[in-house]
Write a structure and sequence with these properties.
heterodimer, A: 118 residues, 3-stranded mixed beta sheet, 4 helices, 9% strand, B: 211 residues, 2 domains
Chain lengths: 118, 211
């Protein structure tokens, strides 16, 4: 009985690991930051539920920021989003997207001054 | 002969659109471009349109006023053209209306960027607190302080590479909060200016709106 259960557990864990690998790791073998972001969005993000109240969601925002400004400034912009959404929720611009209230905070709202300096 | 024909055709293509176009349509197109953030193209169109219209024409006054207001927005100026003595703005009724509004409604004071940045450098979270973003200040402090304490703890225990790793993470997080403080001050200033400028535009009674 126990060897069968052990085998079942092993197969379940193996298939879960393979699914995770297939979904999150293989399509994003390009750069480390791309891989991490893809892993979060497709591996962890689907498991922990919707935590980001903004539109676009924080992971997509971070991806856009890193693609546009590189790893360092992109990560600072992502960090800025995580910090400033706490006060923005109080008086931000709300959108209704698919029946859900979302705080409208696109990248262009926060990186315009970087483009101006460029 | 062929060369002359080609030049004539080219000149027609360049000058005919501004001269022959319906001013209302061209004006609308320019505002549409400005609304999309293409202020330079909008200004060029308005400028060409103003040159093509006869002096004293209502559309010429509108186009000139719109051109000047968009130029103001682009450089975030608060000094109004009518008061700064730019040519032709004194007799323009649209600019006169906008100027009257600007005199009666001065812009709200700007968020001071450098104190906010300096405070964020000296004390994590203080830059956000300076801007009265209290929750953000708490979040910024929570990001940096635990990692800073951990770095000091590792340094005291002489943990070598672990200390370096913690220090780098702390540096990254700290610089991120400084960036955030600076970015929020910039954003607050830009949004305050835009709210004021939109009021100026609406007061000018110009048709349409470039946002």
């Amino acid at each position: 009985m126990f060897p069968v259960l052990r085998l079942y557990g092993l197969l379940a864990a193996g298939s879960f690991g393979a699914a995770l690998l297939w979904q999150s790791i293989l399509p994003a073998m390009g750069s480390p930051e791309h891989f991490l972001m893809h892993f979060y969005r497709n591996g962890i993000g689907q498991l922990d539920g919707r935590a980001c109240p903004s539109y676009p969601v924080c992971s997509l925002y971070a991806t856009q920021a890193v693609q546009k400004h590189g790893l360092l400034v992109g990560s600072w912009l992502a960090m800025d989003r995580l910090i400033h959404e706490h006060d923005d929720i109080e008086h931000g611009h709300w959108l209704n997207i698919n029946g859900e209230e979302r705080l409208f905070d696109p990248l262009s709202r926060n990186d315009f001054w970087l483009r101006r300096k460029e | 002969m062929m060369k002359r024909c080609a030049f004539a055709l080219l000149a027609l293509l360049i000058y005919a659109p501004a001269g022959c176009a319906d001013p209302a349509g061209s004006y609308r197109q320019a505002l549409h471009r400005a609304a999309q953030g293409d202020d330079k193209v909008a200004q060029k169109t308005l400028h060409a349109l103003a040159d093509a219209l006869p002096a004293g024409d209502t559309w010429r006054q509108r186009v000139t006023a719109a051109d000047q207001l968009i130029a103001m927005r682009e450089t975030q100026q608060t000094l109004f053209p009518a008061r700064s003595g730019l040519n032709g703005s004194g007799s323009n009724p649209y600019l006169a209306l906008a100027s009257a509004y600007a005199s009666a409604h001065p812009m709200l004071p700007e968020a001071r960027r450098w104190p906010a940045t300096l405070l964020a450098v000296m004390l994590p979270g203080a830059g956000h607190a300076w801007q009265e973003r209290w929750r953000d200040a708490g979040m910024a402090a929570m990001m940096v302080w635990p990692m800073l304490i951990l770095t000091v703890w590792a340094a005291k225990r002489r943990m070598g590479p672990v200390t370096v790793f913690f220090a780098l993470i702390t540096l990254w997080l700290w610089s991120g909060t400084v960036f955030s403080s600076m970015s929020l001050a910039e954003r607050a200033n830009a949004e305050t200016y835009m709210a004021w400028w939109q009021g100026v535009w609406q007061a000018s009674a110009l048709p349409g709106r470039p946002w």
